[in-house]
Design a protein that fits this description.
Layout (H helix, E strand, L loop, with lengths): L1 E7 L6 H9 L6 E7 L6 H6 L6 E5 L5 H11 L4 E6 L2 E3 L3 H6 L8 E11 L2 E6 L5 H7 L10 E3 H7 L12 H8 L5 E13 L4 H24 L9 H11 L2 H9 L9 H9 L4 H10 L1 H9 L4 H13 L1
């Protein structure tokens, strides 16, 4: 049995699609625990329209996603918890695939590849490393798909849950970094989750603030783990500055690679991009232009055709 934990705040528009995708799972042995983090919209009315005994709805005072997650983990019925956001959609076989790992050790965190949709169309996809050691290297710069399956007792009692001082921004990434050496990651190499992507002027401002927070999280992580070797990894540090810090520092760091730059086209391109005006560079990073181009190049791939078909059925 699995507890599906869905936290939501004022997202009544997307919530019905998320619930329908959950109720349509081939895996039937679950409870859907919806923690409403003090919404002021029609969230409760949306939930009430679904007549299914597996759904448990609890409304709390607004405390942020971290607090809602900790509360949900405390009241979840089952040991293994599948985490999903209100604008996420999952394919009918998703829980079947994830549930294959509930016999693994308690410190296992399971995720998958993900596609991202805007309005009613897939716009890009993200692959992630699949093996634990590679995932941990990936975490030096980025987080993984946060639609995960994990053991509630391990997360709550061993890892002490989510950091509630981090409100609605990178709670999952902070949890992974803080407990980097205690978690064993598994990434299923299939597109089992379709995540909502929202882009507007507000998204731009929010993204800039999030990038600043990520930068601080990473610095604290590097210091705590005593990763002194990273101080000489100019490629990694250059990317970190480009994504989350200062573009001038990114260029200076990349230049320390010397003639190696000529052998690394991506870094050469990154140096060129770092000379763009701040607003344009932020737009490129927020809008995910590079993944969008890759998706267009692979548009007719069979693995994406199935995802597009499922999206049409759910929206």
């Amino acid at each position: 049995m699995i507890s599906i934990l869905l936290t939501t705040y004022n997202d009544a528009l997307n919530l019905p699609n998320a619930i329908r995708s959950i109720m349509g799972q081939k895996y039937k042995n679950f409870e859907l625990l919806i923690i409403d983090d003090g919404s002021t919209d029609e969230t409760q009315s949306v939930v009430d329209k679904f007549n299914d005994q597996r759904i448990r709805y609890i409304k709390t005072e607004h405390r942020g996603r971290s607090g809602a997650l900790n509360y949900g983990l405390n009241v979840a019925k089952y040991e293994w918890v599948f985490l999903i956001d209100a604008d996420d959609l999952i394919l009918p076989e998703t829980l079947n695939k994830y549930s294959n790992y509930i016999t693994y050790p308690q410190n296992t965190v399971i995720s998958s590849f993900a596609c991202f949709y805007e309005n009613d169309k897939i716009v890009f996809y993200l692959d992630y490393p699949t093996q634990d050691s590679d995932v941990k290297d990936f975490l030096y710069l980025h987080s993984i798909n946060n639609t995960v399956l994990y053991n509630r007792n391990f997360i709550l009692h061993r890892l002490k849950g989510y950091n509630e001082t981090i409100i609605d921004s990178e709670e999952d990434y902070e949890l992974w970094l803080r407990n980097y050496d205690q978690i064993s990651f598994i990434i299923i190499p299939e597109y089992l989750v379709i995540k909502g992507f929202r882009y507007d002027s507000f998204s731009m401002r929010t993204s800039i603030l999030k990038r600043e927070k990520v930068y601080l999280l990473q610095i604290n992580f590097y210091d705590r783990m005593n990763l002194s070797k990273l101080n000489q990894d100019y490629e990694l540090l250059g990317w970190r500055e480009l994504f989350y810090g200062s573009k001038s520092k990114a260029r200076k760091t990349f230049y320390k690679l010397g003639f190696q730059i000529l052998k690394k086209p991506k870094i050469f391109l990154a140096i060129l991009i770092s000379n763009l005006p701040d607003k344009l560079l932020s737009r490129i990073l927020v809008f995910n232009y590079y993944p969008r181009i890759l998706y267009r190049l692979k548009y007719f791939s069979e693995r994406f055709s199935n995802v597009r078909l499922q999206l049409k059925k759910l929206i």
